[in-house]
Design a protein that fits this description.
Blueprint: E1 2-9, H1 19-22, E2 29-32, E3 35-38, E4 59-66, H2 71-80, H3 83-95, H4 99-111, E5 175-181, H5 184-187, H6 191-196, E6 200-204, H7 211-224, E7 227-235, H8 243-254, E8 259-265
Parallel strand pairs: 5-6, 5-7, 7-8
Antiparallel strand pairs: 1-4, 2-3
Length: 272
């Protein structure tokens, strides 16, 4: 049995709302005794489609020893749920760049003589929202060009990547900490003035990076420093919510009173 990424459910936070169940077409989750449970490692692909649908932040990704994910066994569950779920599963794999699993799923459908959904652009309705291709603006603005105002950067330190910042970096102590998902500064036009100003910045990607490393790093940051507040700024897509429970858990483990603020940014750049 090898180590791989797989979901982890905090039973203390889970309320049994069932929202994760409908967002796991692979059939890896069930409600048992009022709590969401991972019924088999074989069915969990570790991509975390369910994370952003949990209102309590009870689901995270961890790396541990687990049985190898089995796409063929998953497809047995998938086809029972009909063509819409088949399409959602295929788009989920495609959106995460899982080409090998995507091919296995298509081969399974061909073997069973089941129609393959139309996966051409313009027909996608499911899959990972964070990887869905969208064109947000077409053409140029028709109004008069705005007067150019050159703003000063509000960045207070370097480096900014969470993976690179030492937990003992002097600029962390007595700081108001901003933890920003990678895409936020690009989507939010006024990021420096509206979100970053007055804060020490840490940047990371809750979808592509190792959340286990993030958990350990943040626990050390909170343990070794006096942190006045933490703001987590992330995009509205489900996969971007994965770091929130990690931050809250690290604050809890520190046994320190740290104010936590959650800021959601829409894909069009507006605060939600």
């Amino acid at each position: 049995m090898a180590k791989r990424k797989i979901i982890r459910i905090d039973e203390d936070k889970c309320t049994g709302c069932k929202l994760c169940i409908s967002n796991c077409p692979e059939g890896a989750l069930q409600i048992i005794d009022g709590k969401a449970c991972l019924i088999s490692d074989l069915f969990c692909d570790g991509l975390g489609a369910c994370i952003g649908h949990c209102p309590e932040g009870a689901i995270t990704i961890e790396e541990r020893e687990a049985e190898k994910y089995d796409e063929r066994k998953v497809m047995v569950n998938i086809i029972k749920q009909g063509p819409n779920v088949i399409k959602a599963h295929l788009e989920h794999l495609k959106g995460h760049g899982e080409s090998r699993l995507f091919k296995e799923a298509l081969d399974f459908l061909k073997e069973k003589k089941i129609s393959i959904p139309d996966m051409s652009e313009g027909h996608a309705h499911a899959g990972c929202p964070g990887a869905r291709i969208m064109e947000l603006k077409k053409g140029e603005s028709k109004g008069k060009p705005a007067t150019l105002v050159r703003l000063d950067s509000e960045l207070r330190q370097w480096p900014v990547q969470l993976m690179l910042v030492p937990s003992s970096a002097p600029y962390l102590n007595n700081s108001d900490l901003l933890i920003a998902a990678d895409c936020v500064p690009f989507a939010c036009a006024n990021f420096h003035a509206d979100i970053l100003k007055g804060k020490t910045l840490l940047v990371g990607c809750p979808k592509l990076d190792d959340l286990g490393i993030y958990r350990n790093k943040l626990e050390q940051v909170f343990k070794n420093n006096t942190i006045k507040s933490v703001t987590y700024a992330h995009m509205e897509v489900p996969c971007c919510f994965g770091l929130k429970p990690i931050i809250e858990e690290a604050i809890s483990v520190s046994n320190k009173k740290i104010t936590f603020n959650d800021v959601t940014i829409g894909i069009n750049g507006e605060k939600r």
